[in-house]
Write a structure and sequence with these properties.
The protein is α+β, with helices and mostly antiparallel strands and about 170 residues long. It folds into two domains: about 100 residues, Glycoprotein, Type 4 Pilin (2-Layer Sandwich); about 70 residues, 2-Layer Sandwich (Dna Ligase, domain 1). The model has no long low-confidence stretch (mean pLDDT about 95). The longest helix is centred in the N-terminal third of the chain and has 16 residues. The chain is built from three helices and eight strands; from the N terminus they run αββαββββαββ. The strands form two sheets. Strands 2-1-3-8 form a four-stranded antiparallel sheet.
């Protein structure tokens, strides 16, 4: 849609092409106005008519050559590989809202007192287990709730020792 940010247009175009034609969008087909910077990025899908989460996949650190590559890969994964949902069907495409969150580098923190769930996302880690929650999620109003959900996503016990990191995002809709 014309009023969407170019990164959201990129994600939408990628998902539409992949769902309809099973073809990956080439980076040179990306909308104009996207930098070639590298960053981690999450693509979040919601069903517009219900507001329900429909998929969310991303990378904490950049793993691709540019943000364009990162969004293309994560858009396809959010639409087709989120284990919580079946793949998006062609009939759902008109009812999807798409957000792209570009992550700033995470920084270590000492405790939940250093979090504000409206401003910061959180990464909770214990050994190889790691859970992430983006900032500004509806229903996540306290740092304790944010950390609890991140622990659950990672399969980390409620009172186990963990390391915490926080990060900010630039969110595009």
């Amino acid at each position: 849609m014309a009023d969407e940010h170019p990164l959201v247009q990129l994600a939408r175009k990628t998902i539409d092409l992949y769902v309809h034609e099973h073809r990956r969008l080439r980076p040179d087909e990306a909308p104009p106005g996207i930098s070639d910077a590298r960053a981690g990025a999450f693509v979040t899908l919601h069903t517009a008519s219900t507001g329900q989460l429909r998929g969310c996949i991303g990378t904490i650190q950049p793993v691709e050559a540019s943000i364009v590559h990162e969004v293309i890969n994560n858009a396809i994964s959010a639409a087709t590989q989120d284990p919580r949902f079946p793949p998006v069907s062609p009939g759902e495409l008109h009812d999807l809202t798409i957000e792209v969150s570009v992550l700033h580098p995470p920084e270590p923190i000492e405790s939940v007192d250093d979090l504000d769930p409206a401003v910061y996302g959180v990464i909770v880690q214990q050994g190889w287990r790691r859970g992430l929650l983006l900032p500004d999620i509806e229903g996540i109003d306290t740092a304790e709730t944010q950390v609890r959900y991140a622990r659950m996503k990672a399969g980390i016990a409620p009172h186990a020792d963990v390391t915490l990191q926080r990060f900010q995002v630039d969110k595009y809709v």
